[in-house]
Structures are given as C-alpha cells and as structure tokens.
C-alpha cells in the first residue's frame, strides 16, 4: 500500500539508527539453522490460507443464493486468515499479494468485493469472487513447497508491524466493512505466530533479556488493539509501539545470525 510522508521520514530515521537496506538476495548462510522451525511455521500459514480460501468459497455459495449477510460473514472469515498471513505475502508472493489485497486501488481481490458487498449490499461480485478464489488457490498450492527464507520472514514481520502503526491505525484499509480493527488484530496474531514459531527460542538462547523485551512489545501491540472500536484506539501510542517493536527486531536480528530487517519501498 502507498507510503505517506511519515513512512518516508521514518525510513530515513531507521536508516540513521542502523537499518540495513539490502535486496531480497540477502546473505542467508545461516538459514539452515531455522529449517525445522520454518516447516512448523509453514503448517500455520497453510492453515491460515486454507481458512481464507474456504471463506472465499463460502462467499461464492452465499452469492449464488443472494444471501447478503451470509456473504459478509464469509468475507470476514476469509479476511482473518489472510491478515495473519501478511507476514510473508507481500515479500514472498508480491504479485499474488497485489491481486488479493490491492488497496487503496481496489479493482481486484478483497477490497473490490468489499466496496460492493458492504458498501451497497450488492451481490453482483461473482467474477471478483471467482478471481479471489483462483488467486488464493494458487497461493495455497505455492506455500506448500515454496522456500520460506527466515530473513524474509523477519523482514515481513517488521514491515507488517510498522504498517499497523503507520497506515492502518489512522482508519485502516477495511473501512467499508468496518473490520479494520480486526485486520490489525489478526496482523499482530500473525506476527506473534511467526516470532514464536521461528525466532523466539533462538533469541532466548542468545539474549534472554532481549527476548523478553520482544515478547512484551508484541503483547503491548496486542493490548493497544483491545479496545471496543477503532475510534477507541490511541493511534499515537500504537504508532510509537510499532516503531519500537521494529527497532527491537533490528536489535534481535544479529543475535540470531540474521541481518537487520529490510524496509523495502512499499509504494510499489
């Protein structure tokens, strides 16, 4: 999604404090250390994308019977699985990520359906839903055996955490459906899942104090999103917490033989 000026300023600030800006071909000499835990993580994301795909198929069934409320519930169910998966999607499958979750230029994917279904109560989104199902099915197939480099997953966790504070906290991307708060909660759930499954044990062995800090910062993000509505969220505190967490991940990376998170240009 497009960067605002705060993102540009923050990227410059993070560059000053030592973020490494490198391409996707970063040094992965130590990736083998993570092979077993990455496969455990794969099982989680297969389940999450499976949920998204099942929700999209249920959405199609509801559309066929003109069941608007059922279609909305199916869309939201699909959305939850997708949002937990964003740790890896934008970095490892960018073409599919763009088609499935394009925003704000919502001509395809979730948001194209959302605009008509939630915005106008229309069910004439069969073609968009079929395209979403096809893209999610392709992703479901890919993730079962595609490489999942730990470096890219760490980068993805940092990027997603920063998005929560910078672009999603000011209203979110699912404004028409009113699910932006759930989007962010599922994002944090996905970050927690990736961190606990892949990185937590290695960091705890290397630097227990930093591991404890990382855990507490994840829970702080989660607590800030526990309000009853998006309006009740303190966006300034959320932005600050998300930045702090990204900086902590940068500190943690060399402790587990990885490079500091890559903050790619998200304006693409």
Automatic annotation (TrEMBL):
Organism expressing this protein natively: Methylocapsa polymorpha
Pfam families linked: Peptidase_M75 (PF09375)
Family as reported in the entry's similarity comment: Belongs to the EfeM/EfeO family.
Subcellular location: Cell envelope
Protein name: EfeM/EfeO family lipoprotein
Keywords (A to Z) from UniProt: Lipoprotein, Signal
PANTHER family (UniProt xref): IRON UPTAKE SYSTEM COMPONENT EFEO (PTHR39192)
InterPro entries: EfeM/EfeO_iron_uptake, Imelysin-like, Imelysin-like_EfeO/Algp7, Imelysin_sf
Domain Imelysin-like: 105-227
């Amino acid at each position: 999604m497009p960067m605002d000026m705060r993102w540009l300023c923050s990227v410059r600030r993070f560059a000053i404090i030592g973020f490494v800006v490198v391409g996707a071909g970063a040094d992965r000499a130590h990736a083998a250390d993570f092979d077993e835990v990455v496969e455990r993580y794969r099982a989680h994301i297969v389940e999450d994308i499976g949920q998204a795909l099942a929700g999209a198929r249920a959405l199609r069934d509801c559309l066929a019977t003109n069941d608007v409320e059922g279609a909305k519930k199916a869309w939201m169910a699909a959305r939850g699985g997708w949002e937990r998966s964003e740790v890896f999607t934008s970095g490892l499958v960018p073409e599919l990520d763009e088609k499935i979750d394009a925003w704000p230029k919502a001509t395809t994917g979730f948001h194209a359906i959302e605009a008509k279904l939630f915005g106008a109560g229309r069910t004439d989104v069969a073609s968009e839903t079929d395209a979403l199902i096809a893209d999610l099915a392709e992703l479901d197939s890919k993730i079962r055996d595609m490489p999942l480099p730990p470096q890219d997953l760490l980068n993805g966790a940092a990027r997603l955490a920063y998005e929560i504070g910078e672009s999603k906290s000011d209203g979110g991307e699912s404004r028409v459906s009113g699910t932006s708060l759930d989007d962010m909660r599922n994002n944090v759930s996905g970050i927690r899942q990736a961190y606990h499954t892949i990185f937590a044990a290695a960091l705890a062995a290397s630097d227990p104090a930093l591991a404890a800090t990382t855990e507490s910062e994840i829970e702080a993000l989660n607590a800030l999103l526990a309000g009853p509505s998006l309006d009740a969220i303190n966006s300034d505190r959320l932005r600050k917490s998300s930045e702090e967490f990204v900086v902590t991940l940068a500190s943690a990376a060399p402790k587990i033989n990885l490079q500091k998170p890559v903050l790619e240009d998200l304006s693409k």
